[in-house]
């Protein structure tokens, strides 16, 4: 999309945060035209600065010979985790509609439009299952009621029990 954008409407974001470690907060923004100018103005105004040491860490990481191998392995592992979570959601959240993401770290589960989203979010938290309501993650008005479920954590073996608890919570609050 960026290659075909001659009017400066496409902004491409990349990050090393999840690929390397949560503490490596380095990202890149690619834009052109009016979008680029607005971003540069905002960056200058906010004086956003990434330390030289962190930039050096990022450069060292992405130029290592094993970087691409690491990315392929991580992509495969995340795909396996995504599939485990999708299976658990389909079993325990029959009211949820899942669209299989091609990548990323999160699964979006669309709930019935009448769902009062804060209720299942807080209900799940009370049961020890942290989920995010989808409203905060849309760049514009949400297209529906969604739960955002992350599958990158250290314990994919808990997906089945976690989704069972989410399903029980939804049954209680809807």
Summarize the structure.
Helix content is 45%, strand content 14%.
The average pLDDT value, as a whole number, equals 88
Order of helices and strands: EHEHHHEEHEEH
Helix content: 40-55%
Biggest β-sheet, characterized? 4 strands, antiparallel
Class from secondary-structure proportions: alpha+beta
Q: What is the radius of gyration computed over CA atoms, rounded to a whole number of angstroms?
A: 19 Å
Give me the side-by-side strand order of the main sheet: 3-4-6-5
Number of strands: 6
Q: Total number of helical segments?
A: 6
User: What is the overall silhouette?
Assistant: globular
What proportion of the residues form beta strands (DSSP E)?
5-15%
Flag low-confidence runs. none
